């Protein structure tokens, strides 16, 4: 290699699954010390291309070179040994192992032929501190929040000492403070000469962190921007192949009558304390705050998924304080959880089965599920919510955006009065985000009450009539749409 040559070069990369080609001759260069954003809608080919680089997918055609030499990793271990690491969007931690064991799994430090646990814990602690994570490295991963698990995945990447890192949606479940810590590490790695492929649907992040932008659409490289600070509109139109006038639809005016009331609610574990608010019919009520503020724990308690120590939940003025999810469901409250794969879907079951499990009254008779009734019910809801898929298709064969639509479809088919959405657009592309915002708008227009929890500040500001800001388990304040902005929300979130 000579100075200025790319550390990684891809030429004519193709990938086919049977007769279907999903990558069509992609060329890509990555240089040392640069951050290249790889963008595209779900299904554009980003994950496939990343998997080829990281050794988990074999290309059907094309060539790669790594540091000037031919490169064709047979598996991820071989790619890691060459200095290429991939941090997946989906969490792949082993819950029964400690944080330190997860950070170094498969490459434990040794001393006299045995695992050097003291060194492993010390080194893992160092990586966690780089990300501002104060959890003991000896703690078991099981029970940690999604955001903290994501930071542990990133700590694994930092511990690789790789020459090229692929970060797939690294900030999908992180709040503002955690994102800042991650960006500092990215900038440090860039200064150390590490090449980074950065995949994200948060386009404002891309403008800030990327040196170049490469856009894929339908398996083809359709655009390359020679700088990262590009107007969001130009990026979006390249991704979707059409003009996108506005991301957030016009929100309807809420009604006066109150559907959901939360009075002085507290968690037995101290995740949140003394929280009170009301949500009107046709209102979209946002909940914002940094990671660890108690947002998810609060809505899980409201929907019966987590215990309540004190306080009340009322529907239409009647106390219904749920002790179990079935209590909330029976009173017309539905929860779309933050982790659609672990909590929202049974991935190896079909779309029809996933929708049917939540709507047994509509698809069964005498306790037996009727195939014809299930098929008709599923087809109606697939069309109603714009799911791109067939009822017989397994959930794990779908893009993230369509999986999220299935989770929405299975609950909204019950016509709930209150819909609680925790991170409704986490890890999905700009086109799918737009359609989910339209679903939220339509729910409000029909008089439903919608509660939206989001780590994406632009999102919670864009869809909400009012915003409850949480800080360290406390209710820091409720802002009206007219007074809510990124400054006012963050001031409350950091108090």
Provide a brief overview of the structure:
By secondary structure, the protein is an alpha/beta fold.
User: In terms of structural class, how would the helical and strand content be classed?
Assistant: alpha/beta
| CATH homologous superfamily designation of the largest domain | P-loop containing nucleotide triphosphate hydrolases
Tell me, rounded to a whole number, the average pLDDT.
88
Strand order of the largest sheet: 6-9-10-3-11-12
Which class of the largest domain in CATH terms?
Answer: Alpha Beta
**Shape, per Cα inertia axes:** globular
Largest sheet: 6 strands, mixed
Uncertain runs: none
Terminal-residue CA separation: 52 Å
Could you tell me the number of beta strands? 24
CATH fold-level label of the largest domain = Rossmann fold
Cα-based radius of gyration, to the nearest Å? 23 Å
Strand % is: 25-35%
Helix content, binned percent: 25-40%
* Second rung of CATH, namely the architecture of the largest domain: 3-Layer(aba) Sandwich
**Total helical elements:** 18
The figure for the number of domains is 2
